[in-house]
């Protein structure tokens, strides 16, 4: 599994808005992106694309919070403020990107991300749905939840006691240790001290 942040979409977002490439270049990039992703799909890759969207106000609030937190200040750059000031231009570029590069085989999932936790849950749910469908995975029926430690041990180890790595019951291991210690003590009593 590979996870890309922006990846080949930089040309049609940041480079377009910041005028780091010509208009012809970023317009051509839509076709190139779709062709590249079609090649990946032809090779059997599964592509999941998520666009995490923040409202302008929430993005500004998060930048201000980061500025005010000493332990998060390292991740804040002047570029972040400059990009935030161009929010409208980025929103327009993002809308074009979503419209021109969402295909049947590689559609975009737009994820509202004002709430980070909810956004993560939505993305994980969509990934689970997509992988289950593509891999033809049928989740197994869940066993009822264990209500006690004993029930957990029985359902997990099928014998009712915690097992060690060697597959022996813990009580059996304790008995072996006791016997080993007894043998050691007997061996010491039989030896004479050479003085």
Question: Please, could you describe this protein's structure?
Answer:
The chain has 195 residues and is mainly α. The protein folds into 2 domains: 7-134, P-loop containing nucleotide triphosphate hydrolases (Rossmann fold, 3-Layer(aba) Sandwich), CATH 3.40.50.300; 149-189, no CATH class. It contains 8 helices and 2 strands. It has helices at residues 14-17, 23-42, 56-68, 78-85, 87-101, 116-134, 149-157, 170-190; strands at 49-53, 108-112. A two-stranded parallel sheet has the order 1-2. The radius of gyration is 30 Å and the shape is elongated.
Outline the secondary-structure elements.
Layout: H1 14-17, H2 23-42, E1 49-53, H3 56-68, H4 78-85, H5 87-101, E2 108-112, H6 116-134, H7 149-157, H8 170-190
Parallel strand pairs: 1-2
Largest sheet: 2 strands, parallel
Radius of gyration: 30 Å
Q: Span between N and C termini? A: 69 Å
SSE pattern:
HHEHHHEHHH
Oligomer: single chain
Rounded mean pLDDT is: 82
Low-confidence stretches: 159-168
Reported CATH architecture of the largest domain: 3-Layer(aba) Sandwich
Q: How are strands sequenced across the largest beta sheet?
A: 1-2
Binned strand content: 5-15%
Task: Give the helix level as a range of percent.
Answer: 55-70%
Number of strands: 2
Number of helices: 8
Dominant shape: elongated
CATH class of the largest domain: Alpha Beta
CATH topology name of the largest domain, in short, is Rossmann fold
The CATH superfamily title of the largest domain: P-loop containing nucleotide triphosphate hydrolases
The number of domains is 2
The computed structural class is: mainly alpha
